[in-house]
Amino acid sequence: MKLNVVEILKHLPKTNCKECGEATCMAFAAKLAKKEVNLKDCPPMFTEEFAAKRQALESMLMGKAA
């Protein structure tokens, strides 16, 4: 199953904070879809605010239905 960048982006913080090392969340989503980066590279995803979205995205990345 090919990961959809837009679907991944829907779960990301969309703050473009650059904490992951990428210029935008879209760039991070594209690299995440290609498995060039790890979700752990996005510190905001591991805050309480994004816990539910992180869990859904983790399931998506593991190939399970979210």
TrEMBL record:
Keywords recorded for this protein, A-Z: 4Fe-4S, Iron, Iron-sulfur, Metal-binding
Which InterPro entries would you find in this protein's record? Answer: 4Fe-4S_dom, ACDS_complex_subunit
Q: Does the keyword Coiled coil apply?
A: no
Matches recorded under PROSITE patterns: 4FE4S (PS51656)
Single GO MF annotation: 4 iron, 4 sulfur cluster binding
Q: List each copy of the 4Fe-4S domain by range.
A: 1-59
Does the record's keyword annotation contain Lipid metabolism? no
Q: What PANTHER family does the annotation carry? A: ACETYL-COA DECARBONYLASE_SYNTHASE COMPLEX SUBUNIT GAMMA, PTHR36214
Q: What is this protein called?
A: 4Fe-4S domain-containing protein
Q: Which organism is it from?
A: Desulfacinum infernum
Kindly list the organism's lineage.
Answer: Bacteria, Pseudomonadati, Thermodesulfobacteriota, Syntrophobacteria, Syntrophobacterales
